[in-house]
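INTERNAL AUDIT FORM
Audit reference: QA-55
Scope: verify that the stored structure record matches its stored sequence.
Auditor: D.O.
Record contents follow.
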Amino acid sequence: MYERERSFVGMRLYHSSTVSVKHPDTHHSRLYLDFGRGFYLTSLREQAVKYALRFKRRGQPAWLNTYEFTYDETLWKIKRFERYDKEWLDFVAGCREGIDAVNYDMIVGGIANDRVIITIDRYFAGEISLDETLGLLRYEKPNIQYCIRTDRMLQECIRFIGSEEL
């Protein structure tokens, strides 16, 4: 029997919130998000800051939480979306409709940001076809998000670095 070759990944990730989140969990996640219920992070600090400033515009506190994320890819069930395509669109559509029966520890893929969400909302409303939707999405460069869906992965792979109020 051969032992699986380990593949370690380490990176700094950010999470925007109205509070400092020292001990992340999946239970406080909203329903009907891009990749379903989970703890959402990004490797792009400026993206996290931009998202946090939405809280400030609503009169709420805005916090930028920073984490070190280290994991062995061979030990976890991970789904990756490399581009905005039909598979990504179908997956996001299902999650946004509450169909969230997948069994992944983490899902990685593009964010349905403001421009992307307008396109997929038009698709969901029947205003544009699947081909038109995919044609428009083809020109969008995905801003990657990490959705950690299991508390076990959060506990074993995330280390809180700090929070700053914006």
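Auditor finding: record pair retrieved intact. The chain is about 30% helix and 25% strand.
Action required: none
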